């Protein structure tokens, strides 16, 4: 889910801070709705949200990207409110630690002739995107990287008739010793 | 022996030592009610039949708030559950430990828009501490165990357990085992305060010249009234409380400077404004307390003690946050103070008290009672005198609530039971009912108004069924007074829909339900009527006091004003340059 409804109370686009938060929660029915509900209820903004079970099947891990305008106090309040949810086991603000962040994207592009094909492949090479499907003169490309890189990739493709885009939303992990585990 | 789901439900309640359950039957809870019937026959659990599910939940709230036990409720699916939502939200806002069992349609029908089906877990999600939909018979007992644990520990709150009908039918039976130990990795409230933080709090107190103790409902929940009073008295702190905290410090003590906030006393709000150290204990800096945050206590450092980390630095930044159970933290703090032979700066405190005494001299709660119209303030003050500040007082929401808070001198915690956070009109009568059921031999008053009382008036039926000798004090001014007051000040006296036309004859109404009704129109008759009602411990008295029609609650801080910008009377409001008249 990317670009969910913008519930932000504040409109100061310019001084928005981006935060990436990882949440470990009980793999229970409704746990996801508790988190998404919390965000809409309290007027927090969700940029993207991804969730899936972990190696421990009783736990789900969620990566949330949120933007705030209230500085440290607002993200601190978000983290506290997440922690307050009974199903939430641990919360970590990844932006506080050295971390790696990735997002995956599929892009379907029309390639009516050889010239366009070549151009698409050239751009794909630069961004290390792979062609994963070709049918009816439609290429499907897969690209992984930071959300910024994916944005950049899309921008270069605009002339090439982008038919469909799907993005996973960002997920992240800390580097080295700081780990989010139970 | 194997038990049905419904039998397991009863065994769970017994294991939790539930003696009273409030509720209303319906299709999805028929099996549960069948077992409740048997349990009542065996003398194990008493079921209180309200007249509306909202009344059942408020009843359970009154029961819980006046005791140290959680309130328990049972409602059916669909409308039964949605009717309970207001009560659940009320308990959420005021941190009342509550377990609400709702019936759900059979599992095979869930999701089909079946008769009386509603996703109550979804509906209540934003207004519960937690909720559960039970999907297997094996989960009934562990879920109810968790529900009671979550509702009563940490910052208390309501928990809803939704049980599909087929789980209770007896088609499936299992062995009952109630889990003794319960650990939840995702829920472990911090109880003990951090030692370093407590130590640094002590250092802050040592430096303070103008401290104030600001206590809230958390002190009631934590049963820390004794600790708070000791601390306040040992160091001569001025003490103010929130609406929810009334009674945690004796109102008749000379260090008590009254409630603070929108309708708090002049002295409490000035003290907050000019203080250099706020010691906030189990309070949450609600907007009705702080007024405009930008103008709030500009000179003060803040020590904030609360069990809920999310309440700290939410509205007002805490310079020293202490997460923990208020009682434990106060004990640790007081212990440390005694250990270090802590003595406050006496000359600074004397100067501080001198300032406070001057504010007190304004006598902001003064009013004149003439011979013609009964002042609501006068009724409450008389009630306080007659009951010695020891009655249980429930209230509804509006002007009467503020007058009750201002003029009833609460000397004990758990006596003042009102809806502070959600502000639920209709709370008072059913809550009073719950209090009386928990304390059959005590005096219980319900201070209400002609608007609020009509929102759950049907509970007069419950009161007659269980012979509850409540004292209903209806401060009847013919208006939705609090809204009318705002219209007078801020909407150029356009009284949109706030005049209560077609009020019922409350005396006849009370009589229709088998109670005693009295209409009191003269100030001279107030005391006699109150005494008659209170001394009669067999009958419910509905005292309909005809009060001054357009009386206002003073002092008042208009919304978004600062603590030093109060109206003390009508002239202040009329002369307010910010209001276009």
Please tell me about this protein's structure:
- The complex is a heterodimer of chains A (182) and B (581).
- With 182 residues, chain A is an alpha+beta fold.
- Chain A has two domains: 17-96, 2-Layer Sandwich (Alpha-Beta Plaits), CATH 3.30.70; 100-171, ACT-like. Chain A, domain 2 (Alpha-Beta Plaits), CATH 3.30.70.
- Chain A contains four helices and nine strands; from the N terminus they run βαββαββαββαββ.
- Chain A is elongated and about 55 Å long.
- Chain B folds into three domains: 2-175, Thiamin diphosphate (ThDP)-binding fold, Pyr/PP domains (Rossmann fold, 3-Layer(aba) Sandwich), CATH 3.40.50.970; 195-361, TPP-binding domain (Rossmann fold, 3-Layer(aba) Sandwich); 376-553, Rossmann fold (3-Layer(aba) Sandwich), CATH 3.40.50.970.
- Chain B is built from 22 helices and 20 strands.
- In chain B, the strands form four sheets. Chain B has a six-stranded parallel sheet with strand order 3-2-4-5-7-6, with helices on both faces. Chain B has a six-stranded parallel sheet with strand order 11-10-9-12-13-14, sandwiched between helices. Chain B has a six-stranded parallel sheet with strand order 16-15-17-18-20-19, sandwiched between helices.
- The model of chain B has no long low-confidence stretch (mean pLDDT 97).
- Classes of the chains: A alpha+beta (182), B alpha/beta (581).
- Chain A binds chain B through residues 25-26, 29-30, 33-34, 37, 41, 73, 76-77, 80-81, 83-84, 86-89, 182, and chain B through 121-122, 125-126, 129-130, 133, 135, 150, 184-187, 308-310, 313-314, 317.
